[in-house]
Amino acid sequence: MSPFPYRLVATDLDGTLLRSDESVSDRTRDALAAATAAGAAHIVVTGRAVPWTRHILDDLSYEGIAVCGQGAQVYHAGEHRLLTSLTLDRQLAGLALSKIEAEVGPLALAASRDGLEGEVLMGPGYLAHEGPLPYVPYEDPAELWSAPLTKLYIQHPTLTDDELTRAARATVGGLVDIVMAGPGIVEILPLGLSKATGLSLAARRLGVKAAETIAFGDMPNDIPMFGWAAHGVAMGNAHTELRAVADEVTASNEEDGIAVVLERLLAG
């Protein structure tokens, strides 16, 4: 067998490492274990904040560093502590939100609070995804801004995710960053923040360079991570924008796309 060519394997969670039922297949677990046995580190890089990621990391017996919150949080799973945490300027976010709504009309809102136990708040009309992830409904808009936030989520009653993302970027692109992280998930982030930001910080702690990294993802919010890593692999179910910049396209998350690539690399 040839040596494994990368020292770091970076994987998104939803639509990438996780199947639709939020499980990780035995085949993919085995492939990641084989890659780590060959000398590579596995790092999770997700848009989810720590409270929505921790149970998955625990299931994987993951004790290393994870990048959460679109790069805002670098989390040490083994020590259950935040190494870095970047918050959204609430005054700037409020200004950006008012400008977007002036352009496209009223939005439904949710927000992710900062911290290891940061709650996800959901306002009237925001459509939550079905599943076990906890959230707290709110009615008073002041409650949204009452504590530090890592991000805002926005939804529009008629615009598609792509249309809302484009309109928001065109309106407030110089104030904040706008990313589409999944179906029904368009986010307002601090300007300049991306998965690449958090991944580069985590890699530095691990003593690994971008040239030694392979990354897997499925949505446009993974584009900066692909730009940073030496090799970007889009899942078969990936958004067209990510597929357009990927170095290769593998099978879908339901078909063990990560394992397909890792097994090939392990075999030389």
Q: Which oligomeric state applies?
A: single chain
Low-confidence runs of at least 5 consecutive residues: none
Distance between the ends: 6 Å
Strand order of the largest sheet: 8-7-6-9-11-10
Q: What is the residue-mean pLDDT, rounded to a whole number?
A: 95
What characterizes the major β-sheet? 6 strands, mixed
Encode the helix/strand succession as letters: EHEHEEEHEEEHEHEEHEHEHEH
Strand content: 15-25%
The global form is globular
Count of DSSP strands: 14
Radius of gyration: 18 Å
The share of residues in helices is 25-40%
- Note the total helix count: 9
Structural class comes to alpha/beta
Explain this structure.
The chain is an alpha/beta fold. The protein has helices at residues 26-37, 54-59, 90-104, 141-144, 161-172, 195-206, 223-228, 240-245, 257-267; strands spanning 8-11, 41-44, 65-68, 73-76, 81-85, 108-113, 120-122, 136-137, 149-155, 176-182, 185-190, 213-217, 231-234, 248-249. A 6-stranded mixed β-sheet has the order 8-7-6-9-11-10. Strands 2-1-12-13-14 form a 5-stranded parallel β-sheet. Strands 3-4-5 form a 3-stranded antiparallel β-sheet, with helices on one face. Strand 4 (73-76) and strand 5 form a beta hairpin. It is globular and about 55 Å long. It starts with 7 loop residues before the first strand and ends with a helix. The model has no long low-confidence stretch (mean pLDDT 95).
